[in-house]
Hints:
With 232 residues, this protein is of the alpha+beta class. 29% of the residues are buried. It has one domain. The protein has a three-stranded antiparallel beta sheet with strand order 1-4-5, with helices on one face. The chain has a three-stranded antiparallel beta sheet with strand order 2-3-6, covered by helices on one side. It has helices at 2-15, 75-78, 87-98, 104-117, 122-135, 180-193, 200-209, 215-219; strands at residues 23-25, 30-31, 41-43, 47-50, 56-59, 64-65, 138-139, 145-149, 152-156, 170-171, 224-225, 230-231.
Amino acid sequence: MYRYLIMLCLVIISALPAHAFAQFTGHLELLPAGCEASGQCTLKNKLHFKDASNVEWEAKAGLVTDGASIPGIFQPIIGAPFDPSFIKAAIIHDHYCDRHVRPWRQTHYVFYEGLIDQGVSMAKAKTMYLAVMLGGPKWTQLIPGIACGQNCINKVNNVTTVAGVPGFLYRKADYSAPDIVPAMATLAALLEADADAISIEEIDAYAESLRLGDFYFQHGAEVAINDTAAIE
């Protein structure tokens, strides 16, 4: 009987979605009080996130943040930069978008997992994920990071030298492309009736179909660079 119950529990656990095990730890407190109005806040305590693959992500206390990097055109749909429903996910995401210690695809996906952990609906989280896949920053080579625990890195040794790393290619966030808003609207409409109707893998493929020939989508997360061209 007990063996049966244990087996049943294991089956139930294995059937749970992967993001069920992604989790933030640490209390988010922004300083000074009311800093959200000025658009610039400082983390009082560290913010830690373990994703569904047990990879650790951490923003240290003292980090200065401007909240979520949400262009004004998206704010009526998504929310304001310091919206409490997704600010934790935004802080971790922006922190790692500024410090290229992990691949851009993995960094954008952790944003999605963070949104789910904060209680954002799956439909909205997937729509926001599509937005960052299309318009979010992208980079090629990774920069050596500083450990913040087991399976955790949270910054580079010298952030000021990142742009000057030989062979380093980086494209900053750009949400001005005219197809981003219609793509988000199309996806949101499809997910409205059934949030599971479109998988993350299908969203990745959709984003890539809208960026045919794009260097970063063609070469994945990392490429090696020679003197004249990018090579795999």
